Amino acid sequence: MDLSAINPVLLIASLMVAATPLLLAAIGELVVEKSGVLNLGVEGMMIVGAIAGFAAAVETGSPLMGFVAAAVAGAALSLLFAGLTQLALANQVASGLALTLFGLGLSALMGQRYVGVKPPQMARVDLPLLSDLPILGRILFSHDVVLYFGIALTAAVWAVLKFTRAGLILRAVGENHEAAHALGYKVVKIRTLAILFGGACAGLGGAYISLIRVPQWTEGMTAGIGWIALALVVFASWKPWRALLGAYLFGGVTVVQLNLQAAGVAIPVEYLAMSPYLITILVLVILSADKSSAPASLGRSFHASR
Amino acid sequence: MKLTKLLTGAAVALGLAAGGALAQDKTKVGFVYVGPVGDGGWTYEHDQARKAVVEEFGDKVETVYVENVAEGPDAERVITQMALQGADLIFTTSFGYMDPTINVAKKFPDVKFEHATGYKRAENVSTYSARFYEGRAVQGTIAGHMTESNIVGYIGSYPIPEVIRGINSAYIHAKKVNPDVEFKIVWAFTWFDPAKEADAAKVLIEQGADVILQHTDSTAPQAAAQAAGNVVTFGQASDMAEYAPFPRVSSIIDDWAPYYIARTKAVMDGTWSSVDTWDGIGPGMVGIGEISDAVPAEVKAEALALKDAMASGEYHPFTGPLKKQDGSDFLAEGETADDGTLAGMNFYVEGIEGSIPE
Amino acid sequence: MIRLEKRPQPSRAWSLATPLMAVLATMLMGGLLFAALGKPPVEAIRTIFWEPLFGEFAFYYRPQLLVKGAPLVLIAIGLSLGFRAGIWNIGAEGQYIIGALTGAGVGLAFYPMESWIIFPLMILAGAFGGWAWAMIPAVLKTRFGTNEILVSLMLVYVAEQFLASMSLGLMKNPEGFGFPGSRNLQQYDSAHNAELIAGTGMHWGVVAALIAVIFSYVLLNRHMLGYHIRLTGEAPRAARFAGVKPARLVLFCLGASGALAGLAGMFEVSGPSGQVSIDFNVGYGFTAIIVAFLGRLHPVGILLAGGLMALTYIGGDIAQGNLGLPSAAIQVFQGMLLFFLLALDMLTNFRISIGKPEVV
């Protein structure tokens, strides 16, 4: 055992990279759930984003175009979900699961030509001076632009939810759709927009995996990250900054676990892998004392009967 | 049993009905895959070999495959389906297909089955597997020379004999050329999860490894090494040539094509019999991808000499004197490990640190 | 202007017609997809829907429909009870895994003793395992008001890790040359859930699924508890006035669905699958949620929906083998089928009216 082999600076830096796809998908789903909709199709939207982004980046040679395409593709897929749950009033749990099934299949079909292809590389943001700072430079100032975007998005979502009228309306719709409707807000329209935002974010998260974190395309490459993002939203109790913290924690468990293994510490890997989920359950229990945290209308269909 | 008779009857009837003129000159070969053909690794290579069979025999064969088949009852159904549809030869390409293959084979005595990496055989069931540990010996040799930090990182999938064998073989040969070498091993507990593999590679690099060996199938570790800049890697399962000449300096390639072609030929000629094949570099089942120019010429020559010695059979990667990790004797001077020991290998050799997870 | 009007009662005619319309719409869109992939569309559709039922080898595929459909129906029946009452157990996959582990664990503990008592004990253990796993969200819900959707989902991942740990450790076959996976229970007579009549696919799990359908039908239509379940789902406030104890209902619904999922896992591991292995679970627990909704949470509907899902799986594999369709195309096809079923379901509960809304 040699714990000194673990370099905490590098550990934190790579933990941030591991956390980014989770964070992007979770922030999107957070907004969706705040509006009172539970979309279990995150995994499906992520993987479609992963291939759409990959394909666009390869064809145009620009990773940024890839991310744009991924967001569009994720949103397009989520539009299906919105149609089902908001217009046809189908059950959200079943629709979300169907979306994941559909997305996994669709991505594999789209990706047939892209196995074994190398995508164009995304340049690291290189800030002179800042990147050269000891310790902080490596942790904070030498990542790709999408990672910063994820953090900025967290801040933006937090600010919008907390300080703006739009955020207030969104929360109102999620808390009590009948009351919001009575006040004259267009529940279906607001929820559809939230679902589209969630889809776009999930698509970005998927593309982060296929373009930066791995980077390659293989079928089924998201390997369950979309599901973890769902857990993360709950863990964060629908608060953006806690989602950021949670993403680092969830992403961190894997990285730390691998670090300990490499340092020769004998750890029961399976039991460590369970821990984020057990912690999430614990958080849920603690939160249940505070009834205000979960959007009250979560998962319920809305139909204006008037 | 009634069903057995019924199925056998159906198979026979089919053979007779079609057998007259047509089926005799067209051999039908089925392939059952555990992953998608687009996984770029294990299943991809099996499908490449299937294509090689088509290439080789042209109109004389018809191949069918089903991908993403879960181990268990789904596999049993798909294998049966192929046998019913008149396949003459069926390759089942995952360890978990072992019992389903044996079950179906009992019902179709006239169909030949080939199960990859298992240990159960029957009259009409052969098993085949590759001695990947021979390739690991070559990798170990190159790794021992190339490392400057003397730390070699190893990404394992699951702690099973196949993987442990590879670690031991690589370590023994790295140690031989570089007594100071040290292995850092992480278990990903997955065969395929690109994101996790990328993390594992990064962790190893951060902890000082400048050579990464992987026993998982994606190219994610290659990309991580490339990003790090000065880390050597080896392709796994497929050549991963897109990362050559650096970081990927060589590779182990699963080359099932010669075997699949030979076995298909045997069915055509009526010479097929149940065998247990465990082939290595010699017969070409384990390919060593081109050693790139990033490797010094004398190291390359040494690695190739080792490869030739194993191909001709004059050298065995597990040759004594060797001790186990706990210090007890494994092989005496000049003794080589028998296949039974290798097949069930569940211990590290002396010098590797850490314990195998349970 | 096109508007939706809620029907006072779900339409009987539409509830029968929409599944057929959905299947037809899927055939049409699926056909286009297959044609786009360069495969003969009509042949592909025929292979998926016709071949398993009436094709040349239907004598083999029909029993397989039972094998594939039984766990789906068994789990979905349990889930439907809770779903009707607005209690959302989406962690059946985890309960299925734990039921398989406890059931197989009991069998393996007795190995190699042969006795008639072993299999009944395994059944009990399987049901108990699933029940106990479902009791975690149930108790947390009743004690602390914790959201059962999320807790049950989290426990799926925990169960998957348990499964990996068991196949690599405690339950590993000591004669398996170090490979992961337990002994094969098919080769251990006392623990083998064999076909009751050879060649029919009829094993104890299928029997249990059929019994569950009948029980659930009787419960929902003839029993006070069933009435309470329906009342709670349709009018929670009225239910409270009628004296329904929500906590008890939660414990019952989650417990029953967990036990049935556990049973399904146990029957699968001791029969068609045979062994505990890392990839033992193939998503039945999640697919069953879809089956429950496709069947409109009605016992007979679930039976039919389970059959339909099984058909697309089996037919899909045949289409892969015969026509070279990629498995991804089959997944997309299944996804489309679900979308259409869910979308058209609306017609059962709503009327589409064109023009100005009437003034009531």
From TrEMBL, chain A:
Topology relative to the membrane: Multi-pass membrane protein
Record GO cellular component, one term: plasma membrane
Pfam families in alphabetical order: BPD_transp_2
Keywords: Cell membrane, Membrane, Transmembrane, Transmembrane helix
Sequence intervals crossing the membrane: 6-25, 37-58, 64-84, 96-115, 135-161, 193-214, 220-238, 245-265, 271-289
Molecular function (Gene Ontology), one example: transmembrane transporter activity
Matching InterPro entries: ABC_transp_permease
Record bears the keyword Cell membrane: yes
Matching PANTHER family: ABC TRANSPORTER PERMEASE PROTEIN, SUGAR ABC TRANSPORTER INTEGRAL MEMBRANE PROTEIN-RELATED
UniProt name for this protein: ABC transporter permease
Organism: Tritonibacter scottomollicae
TrEMBL record, chain B:
Record has Signal as a keyword: yes
Signal peptide boundaries: 1-23
Ranges where the ABC transporter substrate-binding protein PnrA-like domain occurs: 26-306
The keyword Metal-binding appears for this protein: no
Coiled-coil blocks: none
Keywords noted in UniProt: Signal
Gene3D superfamilies: 3.40.50.2300
GO CC annotations on file: plasma membrane
Superkingdom of this protein's organism: Bacteria
PANTHER family documented for this protein: ABC TRANSPORTER SUBSTRATE-BINDING PROTEIN (PTHR43208:SF1)
Name listed for the protein in its UniProt record: Nucleoside-binding protein
Annotated source species: Tritonibacter scottomollicae (Epibacterium scottomollicae)
TrEMBL record, chain C:
InterPro entries: ABC_transp_permease (IPR001851)
Bilayer topology: Multi-pass membrane protein
GO cellular component, one term: plasma membrane
Source superkingdom: Bacteria
Transmembrane segments: 12-37, 69-87, 94-111, 117-140, 149-171, 202-220, 249-267, 328-347
Keywords from the UniProt entry: Cell membrane, Membrane, Transmembrane, Transmembrane helix
GO molecular function term, any single one: transmembrane transporter activity
Main location: membrane
Location in or out of the cell: Cell membrane
Name of the protein described by the UniProt record: Nucleoside ABC transporter membrane protein
